[in-house]
Automatic annotation (TrEMBL), chain A:
Listed GO MF terms: transmembrane transporter activity
This protein's name: Sodium:solute symporter family protein
Annotated CDD domains: SLC5sbd
Entry annotated with the keyword Ribosomal protein: no
Species assigned in the record: Peribacillus simplex
Main location: membrane
Stretches that traverse the bilayer: 6-22, 43-66, 72-91, 119-137, 157-176, 188-206, 235-258, 270-297, 317-343, 364-382, 388-407, 419-437, 457-477
Membrane topology: Multi-pass membrane protein
Location in or out of the cell: Membrane
InterPro entries: Na/Glc_symporter_sf, Na/solute_symporter, Sodium:Solute_Symporter
GO CC, alphabetical: plasma membrane
From TrEMBL, chain B:
Transmembrane segments: 34-54
The organism's place on the tree of life at top rank: Bacteria
A Pfam short name: DUF3311
Keywords of this entry: Membrane, Transmembrane, Transmembrane helix
Organism (species): Peribacillus simplex NBRC 15720 = DSM 1321
Protein name per UniProt: DUF3311 domain-containing protein
Length: 494, 66
């Protein structure tokens, strides 16, 4: 065993220990398990929401995109900080309604707002569908990090399996408390590592950040601005808007919001978080340095640029610390995602199918679902081969299809009904799946269309059609009154 | 919606709306090519705007609701 592998192993055990210990003194019911009894203050909420900034995706994918695509990578911090701005207005409304109605998951929120169990089921399925690629990103990233940082002593597959076992174990035991406690360790580690690497590496190779960028400019000026077509300005703006809208619709972020102890906690977080995204700049500095220093990584291998550059630069023990930080950036977000998917499915399927289920039954079922999702994600991780950023964009394209129903549900009187909402969501999701799997763009149908339009994110086009369908179907079904029986049933279960 | 919350639109319009003018390498500011500086600038602006909104937002007066 080499020194770096030893350091990674120590942090893995530490994370498992903290994750399990987090349960201590908690009487575990569904509300504790899923949203920490709605008791998290500013500090924990900050760390949990910031968990989304430093996932393996931003760590490896952010530097990987800077390496292979240049300035297009700026879309990552851009959508995150705009999502925080939006959250100031959006998120307290969601929290307030959920608190009043004892809601602990996103599907439950939609079921309650639209007084429809079917709506809850659709949202639960869509949420899980969007979460699986996201969990895959984490496990895949974890595999890459541990394998590279151990100098190949552990294969990526073995690392992904070990990581999945650890995260599944502590989530099943401690629920979201486990995620909160491991998040402390994670954010401390990643801050130190990212700032250190982001400053040290450009200075080490080029004597400064500006001189590093000037070297890139001299060799490949096109890397420092957005392209004229493809990953162009219209792609950038549409993707940033889409992801900013989708950020708080991701089931795991939604759930973190519900675990807050008050509205003001959420607003205070909105202020501090954009500044925290500044730290992603350091990740880009590393990616741009790698363009000059380790040329030749093709396609999905761009995700390796940060680690390859670090290995070329540092002693094994430093690589161990970087590997450990990377490991934690996979475990913490993956744990919240597993929770969110499992609680959503338990609430909107199991509780509907078995209305008599006790809290104990629900907790058992949630844990079984956690194992199930872990296994599915592991299978996709081992068999699939996409670059991290593509998976990320697909998740967002899917989940953002919930945006029209969410935003329409906020005012006192909702201008759309459940039929419109469900039809719109289905239309949007089908278009995203069709376009992603078939690699279809607008130009497939209209070859002469200008690039400005063709480059618009598929998710945005699906969203526009979704909105259209939502309003048309809502208007057509206005006369159908909501069936009284279903409303009564829903009251019984909630 | 309180008027003060309309300020929340500013980062969206400023950052994305003026992007065509910011999509260039020079001048370098704080060691960064202009486009990257533009991203960083709006992150800081977003926080400043949120502080202003928070300060004047009537929702934050009195005790935390519920």
């Amino acid at each position: 065993m080499n020194i770096s592998l030893l350091i990674i192993a120590i942090f893995l055990v530490l994370a498992l220990y903290l994750g399990i210990k987090a349960r201590k003194g908690k009487d575990m019911d569904m509300e504790q398990f899923a949203v920490g009894g709605r008791g998290f203050g500013t500090f924990f909420i900050f760390l949990l929401i910031a968990g989304e900034i430093y996932t393996t995706f931003t760590f490896l994918g952010g530097s990987g995109w800077a390496y292979s695509k240049g300035a297009a990578a700026y879309y990552v911090p851009a959508y995150i900080f705009l999502a925080y701005v939006l959250s100031y207005w959006l998120v307290p409304k969601i929290w307030r309604y959920s608190k009043r109605h004892s809601i602990i998951s996103q599907p439950e929120y939609f079921a309650s707002k639209y007084k429809s169990k079917s709506m809850g089921m659709i949202v639960a399925v869509l949420g899980s569908l969007a979460l699986v690629p996201y969990i895959v990103i984490q496990l895949k990233g974890l595999g890459i990090i541990v394998s590279e940082a151990s100098y190949g002593a552990i294969s990526p597959v073995a690392a992904s399996v070990i990581g999945a076992v650890v995260v599944t174990t502590y989530v099943m035991i401690s629920g979201i408390h486990g995620s909160a406690w491991t998040a402390i360790l994670k954010d401390f580690m990643i801050l130190v590592v990212v700032i250190f690497l982001g400053i040290y590496i450009p200075f080490h190779y080029f004597g400064g950040i500006q001189s590093m960028f000037e070297t890139v400019q001299a060799a490949k000026p096109e890397m420092l601005v957005l392209a004229d077509q493809g990953l162009s300005q219209s792609w950038f703006v549409s993707t940033v808007l889409l992801n900013a809208l989708g950020f708080y619709l991701l089931p795991q972020t939604f759930m973190v919001v519900l675990s807050s102890n008050g509205e003001r906690t959420l607003r205070k977080n909105a202020i501090a978080l954009p500044l925290y995204t500044l730290l992603l700049l350091f990740v880009f500095f590393i990616g741009f340095t790698a363009i000059m220093e380790i040329p030749g990584l093709q396609g999905a291998d761009g995700d390796l640029s940060l680690l390859r550059l670090a290995i070329q630069t540092f002693d094994p023990w430093v690589i161990g610390v970087i590997g450990a930080a990377g490991l934690l950036t996979a475990l913490v977000p993956a744990s919240v995602m597993l929770m969110a998917a499992s609680v959503g499915l338990t609430n909107s399927f199991f509780k509907v199918l078995v209305p008599a289920a006790t809290e104990t039954h629900q907790l058992i079922v949630s844990r079984i679902i956690i194992i199930g999702i872990s296994i599915i994600a592991l299978i996709v991780t081992v068999t699939g081969g996409e670059a991290l950023a593509i998976l990320n964009i697909m998740s967002y394209s899917l989940i953002t299809q919930l945006a029209p129903s969410l935003f329409c549900s906020l005012p006192k009187t909702n201008i759309i009904n459940k039929y419109g909402a469900m039809a719109g969501i289905l239309a949007g999701v089908l278009i995203v799946l069709y376009a992603t799997i078939g690699d279809v763009k607008v130009a497939t149908f209209l070859p002469d269309i200008p690039h400005v339009i063709n480059d618009i994110s598929t998710g945005v086009i699906a969203l526009l059609i979704n909105i259209l369908v939502t309003f048309i179907v809502s208007a057509l079904t206005k006369h159908i009154s909501i069936q009284q029986t279903e409303m009564n049933d829903l009251d019984k279960i909630s | 919606m309180d008027a003060i919350k309309l300020l929340l639109f500013v980062p969206f319009i400023g950052f994305l709306g003026l992007l065509p003018y910011a999509n260039k390498i020079e001048p370098y500011i704080l060691g960064m090519p202009f486009l990257l500086f533009w991203v960083a600038f709006w992150m800081v602006m977003a926080s400043i705007i949120l502080i202003i909104v928070y300060k004047f937002d009537p929702d934050n007066k009195g005790s935390d609701s519920e």
